[in-house]
Amino acid sequence: MKRRDFVKSTALSALGASLISPLESLAGTAETHLSSEDVSPRAAFEDNYPLNFVAIGDWGRNGEYHQNEVAKQMGDWAATHSNKFIVSVGDNFYPKGVVSENDPLWHYSFENVYTAHSLQDDWYPVLGNHDYGTDPDAQVRYSKISRRWNMPALYYSKEVNIDKSSGKVLLVFIDTQPIVYDLKEREPEKQLAWIDQTLANASPDVKWKIVIGHHPAHTVGPRIKNYDTLAIRKALTGMFEKHKVDVYLSGHEHSLQHLKPEGYTHQFISGAGSELTEVTAGIPYCRFQASEHGFMYFSINAKKLRVNAISDSGTVLYQTEISK
Fold first, then answer.
1. Does the residue 174 lie in any domain?
2. Is residue 49 part of a domain?
3. CA-to-CA distance for 323 and 301, rounded, in angstroms?
4. Neighbouring C-beta atoms of residue 137, cutoff 10 Å
5. Alpha helix locations (H) across 214-260?
6. What are the φ/ψ torsions at residue 6 (nearest 5 degrees)?
7. Is 156 domain-assigned?
8. How do strand 122-125 and strand 156-161 relate by DSSP bridges?
9. Secondary structure class of 259 (helix, strand, coil)
10. 193: CATH
């Protein structure tokens, strides 16, 4: 099915400001500039988008480096916008993960930071490189302690209903550390075969395929030419193309990015949950980049997938829409 990509840049307050309405459409492009007299943020973001979720990454710093500020804004946003669950794209606990399911970092960096009632939904995490510093399996075991931390394995999948009649979204959560570093004891080849099979065996009513991992396949951050980025690109992009994966969502780079390299898959980086790293402008495959604290918000129906990048002050830095 042919896809059309729509890109909209917006700037507004998440609470109380009006979404800016169209002033002009640029000839020959799908870009729209918006001005302030149009519709409310909730109506603009959620009309006909029954499935919504927040994505955050690279956050676990005991509330420091703006982690608390991002967490508060996530809570404010989810309190005023529909939200089904939260996806964490890894580096959940700095500097070396957690030593057990009873590590105090669970309280200092997670439970006592993301306290808003609106954030008590299910969290679906993957691991990052820092999470491998001590006991990565402890984050799986914590699922038996916490009501909201839902990590049944180091890699896993879910098919989520868009609504009662619009089909499903396939979410494939992967463990990229063994793939990047070829950790034989973690059987990376077995995981790659599982990813291939899971994508191939998606239900007939799956409308969107989203893969979530920590390491990006492309970036305009400091790791643009790093080994880990190139390793993920080599291992996964052919598989994404083969199975028409709509979105690869990752972290690792401490920024917010939307990338569209050659091929079918859009790539989003939501790694701005605490400490920031720089980004480079002017890279051809980059549609948006910001070294600003924040998170992303995904809104989905059967034919459209909308993504907003939101700062820790509640400003919508960027909005894009993918259509089928």
1. yes
2. yes
3. 10
4. 13
5. 227-242
6. -115, 135
7. yes
8. unpaired
9. strand
10. 3.60.21.10
pLDDT at 47: 58
Residue 165, pLDDT score: 87
Which residues does 172 contact at the CB level (< 8 Å), separation at least 6?
Answer: 157, 195, 198, 199, 209, 210, 211, 212
* Amino acid present at 276: L
Domain containing 257 equals 6-20+40-323
- 64-78 average pLDDT score: 98
Question: pLDDT of 27-36, one tens digit each?
Answer: 333 333 233 2
Judge whether residue 62 has pLDDT over 60.
yes
- SS3 at position 82: coil
Average pLDDT of the segment spanning 46-56 = 89
CA distance 113 to 123: 14
- Model pTM above 0.85: yes
How many domains does one find in the chain? 1
Those residues whose C-beta lies under 8 Å from the C-beta of residue 150, and which sit 6 or more positions away, are 122, 123, 124, 125, 143
For the segment 126-171, what is each residue's pLDDT rounded down to a tens digit?
999 999 999 999 999 999 999 999 999 999 999 999 998 899 999 9
Q: Say if residues 316 and 310 touch (Cβ distance below 8 Å).
A: yes
